[in-house]
Amino acid sequence: MTPSKTPTRVALVTGGSGGIGRAVVMKLAADGFAVGVHYSGNSGRAQSIADEVAAGGGQAITIAGDVSEPTAMTAAFDAVEAAFGGIDVVINTAGIMILSPVATLNLADLDRMHRINIRGTFVVSQLAANRLRRGGALINVSTSQTLLQHPGYAPYAASKAAVESLTLILARELRGKDITVNAVAPGPTATPLFLDGKDEQTVERLTQLAPLERLGTPEDIAQVAAFLAGPARWINGQVLFANGGIA
User: 186 in a domain, yes or no?
Assistant: First the structure.
């Protein structure tokens, strides 16, 4: 990664201390971005990621906040702008996944997932719509389960379907601002969020779904996010399914 005292582009990555979030932070830093590493609870992990960026010659700060709270996220945007002079890219990886059949879902879990996945995405998207610089990009995160429709994923997929609708409409609402808005929809990806609670047989079955016969990696998803954050200026209002070819 090339050191730069005056970064030409600045990114805020929500959920930057998570599996996909960390990979996104590291990829953007390698591409020359200064990065705000957002976290909600794990300050130590976020700081270690920022330290890793700095050790490679890049620039990063950590910021905390509940993505569903406008005051907290306004402060996060303020902190990144104060540190680096503005924000060009927001990549919204923060989210949770709770699996359950519809018939037995605890509605408290549904409310919690909706608060983070839907309200949180809306709060961050609203701030990005008003504060990204021209030539900027907002990338939200959906899931391939909106198409795959596997049993047990209905509550999660429903929350991410809302993310997709928000993303596609916001792209059209930002006409004239030179800001792209897209979503990445990962397939099965080897992160703690995905692997938690799954036995070996389930993981192996999901591994075989893709023609490439492996799980995705956080780095696979980070490559797509970085593409949308940088060179892909003619991709707008789209959902990119990064799932290795799962039908």
Answer: yes
